[in-house]
Design goal:
336 residues; mainly beta; Porin; twelve-stranded antiparallel β-barrel; two-stranded antiparallel ribbon; 3 helices; 45% strand; disordered N terminus
Length: 336
């Protein structure tokens, strides 16, 4: 029985290490915002959006990873200085799924990302152009999943209750700090086009730390600030939408002590299709890395670039929009 659990936990540790390598990047997932005209202010109302991505790398037997990002956005009636105020709350979740062969430990895991609270100030510049500013924080210190994985396969650790060793811990070191998120987006939405560039910065308290006895074992973690760029160029034909997307991330600190060690980032290109069912809209897109800083060593000991392929699906549901105001009838003028 002990050997069986040791094998399972060791498999889980392998998943953890693969997930860490796969997401050695910003908390905001590159590509999460393509297909959204983020620079244009939304009509007043309440909107629900869910974006799901599944990612596979070229590295054999590494874990597949996915992220689900559901959020609610309230486009308020407030327009100070002509810019609409929008409030956003999101609760992302990260998943990892093993691809281990027969006879190897297998374990799927899910990790809660800190709740995102953000505000957006969006301006209609006229001529179908818009620009928006975003500021927010992922509350990783408050409610992010720690992703701590332990195994008894190695020598007991006297500093951890139960004597287990923290192999593959933490799964996602970026959760050792709140993520301070800032963004600026510009959109053109005329003639059925959505041409949008969205720049997002993720800033961390570095070094980050996890609390409790687990954090004491792990110690301080050096985190890299990151910059994401999401690009969209789609055209709507009736209810259909089709076009091209591109996205990537840039890590500023890739030194040997950084959680993003030797991984400057990645950039992917792909295509998007969508359909508007009127009560809700669906988008799907697929992208493949054209540049990557991630690497792996194959069975022959050769180093290879670890390119990724991403598949995405998104649902956009307007939950509430205020009724249109009826025009006031002009009084009839009568001659006496």
């Amino acid at each position: 029985m002990l050997k069986r659990w040791t094998a399972v936990l060791t498999g889980a540790a392998a998943v953890a290490l693969s997930a860490t390598a796969s997401y050695a990047q910003s908390t905001t997932v590159p590509g999460e915002q393509v297909g959204l005209a983020a620079g244009a202010p939304l009509p007043e109302g309440l909107y629900a959006v869910d974006t799901f991505t599944y990612r596979r790398t070229d590295q054999p037997n590494s874990a597949d990873t996915s992220v689900n990002v559901p959020f609610l956005l309230w486009s308020t009636p407030f327009t100070p200085l002509g810019g609409r105020i929008e409030a956003l709350v999101a609760q992302p979740t990260v998943f990892a799924f093993t691809r281990n062969g027969a006879g190897q430990g297998n374990k799927d895991i899910s990790i809660n990302v800190g709740t995102l609270l953000a505000g957006i100030w969006a301006f209609d510049l006229g001529g179908n152009f818009g620009v928006s500013l975003l500021g927010g924080v992922h509350l990783n210190d408050l409610d992010a999943g720690r992703g701590s994985l332990f195994t008894g396969a190695f020598a007991p650790n006297p500093r951890v209750p139960g004597g287990l060793s923290p192999v593959g811990t933490p799964v996602l070191p970026i959760f050792s700090s709140n993520t301070y998120r800032f963004g600026v987006a510009g959109s053109y939405t005329g003639d059925g086009w959505d041409i949008t560039a969205n720049l997002t910065a993720n800033i961390y308290d570095s070094p980050g730390r996890f609390g409790g006895p687990v954090g004491a074992v792990i110690g301080p973690i050096r985190l890299s600030d990151a910059l994401n760029l999401d690009l969209t160029a789609t055209k709507t034909f009736g209810n259909f939408e089709i076009g091209a997307v591109g996205y990537g991330t840039y890590n500023f600190d890739i030194s040997q002590f950084s959680a993003a060690v030797n991984n400057r980032g990645r950039f992917a290109l792909g295509g998007l299709v969508g359909y508007d069912f009127k009560v809700f809209k669906v988008q799907a897109y697929v992208a493949r890395d054209v540049v990557t800083g991630a690497q792996y060593t194959n069975a022959l000991g050769r180093t290879r670039d670890n390119y990724s392929t991403d598949g995405w699906i998104r649902f956009i549901i307007p939950l509430y929009t205020p009724p249109a105001v009826s025009p006031v009838a002009a009084p009839l003028m009568r001659k006496g």
